[in-house]
Protein 1
Amino acid sequence: MKTITTLIAAVTIALAAGNCLAADAKHGKMLFESPALGGGTSGKTCLTCHENGRDFSPETLTRPTYTIMGNPVANLSGVINFCIEVALRGEAIPEKGEDMQDLIAYLSVLIKENSEKPQ
């Protein structure tokens, strides 16, 4: 019985971790390049301001706080939504939603690719 309980607990943890890792960077790239992100109306995309990952560093993913355009922002999802609302003139997307997770997954890929490029 103890073995079955341990096995069930291990499977539950693995499935929970799998859901966290299920973000789709390819979909995130599509969103990053879309002027329709959040229903944007400005015609801009994330790529407009962040071509080739401009302004992103490895710390982008792990900072405890952020400041954007002089405004304090609590987390990376908040920064992304700030840009959607201000630059793209759209509506914020859910911070825990699939689109947000996909965007962050793409940022991770973009930052990794940039850090591997010779200076």
Note: The chain has one domain: 24-116.
Protein 2
Amino acid sequence: MAWVYLLVAGVLEVVWATGLKYSDGLTRLWPTVIAVVTVTASLYLLGLAMKSLPMGTAYTIWTGIGAVGTVVLGIVVLGESASPVRLISIALIVLGAIGLKVSH
């Protein structure tokens, strides 16, 4: 169950980061509310996952899901650059997370 908590926590990290982007510096109410609620839920689920997963593995995978998810969302939704360097960097993050999972 810890891996499910961690996956959902990572997805919620993407949601809160996106809410933060749309909050316009925490000046727009609903995107700010979404960011605050989802960051709280994300951290709660990360804490549950860390009850049985190694801290370093859980935290790295959580941030990896958030980082990769926000970059992909930025490329697909916001039209951010999909340069080869960015795509290679995403691949390296994913490979690092896989390495941690396999070594667990």
Note: The chain has one domain: 2-103.
Protein 3
Amino acid sequence: MIARRTALQALPLPWLASAAWPARAQADAAGDSAPPVSQRIATAWRVAGATAPDTGDRVGLLQVNWAEGRVQVLAEQAVPSRAHGLLPLADGGFMAVANRPGRWLMRCDAQGAIVQRLATDNERPARTFNGHVETSADGSRLYTTETDPTTGAGWISVRDPLTLARIAEFSSHGIDPHQLLRGPADMAGRLMVAVGGIVRDRLGRKLDEPMSPALVQLDGTTGALLGRWTLPDAQLSFRHIAWASHGQPRLGVALQAEHLQPAQRLATPVLAVWEADARGDGGRLVLRGDSAAAVAQSGGYAGDIAAGPGGGFVLSAQKQGRALWWHPSLPADYTTVAQVTEPCGLLTLPDSRGVALSAGRGLALWHTQAAPRMLAWPGALVPDNHWVALARA
């Protein structure tokens, strides 16, 4: 996807909604609330003009001052290939992991300096990273989604957070596992895994073979399979996931249509919602945002998902240039809250009443209680898919 983007040349005026939200959701957005004045953000990007052996791929820290309208690069590190997922750490640092089929993982401190780096060339059994990393609730373990390039089997590696070495492993119960998240407090010790289900070759390229996407729940200690949910349409790949900000455990699953015919891809929903049962050890997965109007807004492709106001979710409909808010009071529909160039990375704001949005030409902020903002990237850089807010250093 990164190749389709162009570096920042000029920042056209985007369209961002300041007060257009479902009437039944207004109570959720009421009360004293304000967007953040500034944020420290970890993200990845590509710079133009790099020459071998420099790939031009970077991972680093940004200081975003929304009040002053300024973005500053605090630190940047060259990486050997494109980065994908990032993980904020309790000490103000972060993890970054290579995009599929990746072979590196690294940990940076609160200043953006690399404190540990792992190359998997000599690991046995040999695997490649699938682009996401998660931590256990107590920080004693890391989990990475991986693929055996020989067999195509999906795996979860358990890693030491200091050395990054693999200390345990278990099956992901499906091929092409992508993002994984630990459960909330009432689902402690469990992992939710978005299994993409796409058959790929050793270089990560898609093969035209039957798909088997699923949402999987695993025991984070033993790897035991606790639940597996699918949708009737096996051509909807499960990619990114996010927990709702409050209420009964609710997980949003961002979908990407893989139908061979473009018309079919454009006619499919891009959101499924999983809701736990009363005990948290079961649940159901249902397509949402499936009205004709919602499908037309989404275009069959969601690049990212984040918790939104009112227990809902915001998705980036990247190919349609929209950020879409889904609220549980209107389960079949979306509210468009932004129209920007190449929207992708989403970041829930601290009060859960809006999101920051990473786009092709800058950063946008949407909040239900404040005017929208749009800031330019600090220079000619090409942003990647994800970004995360960091604790104060």
Note: Residues 1-13 have pLDDT under 50 and may be disordered.
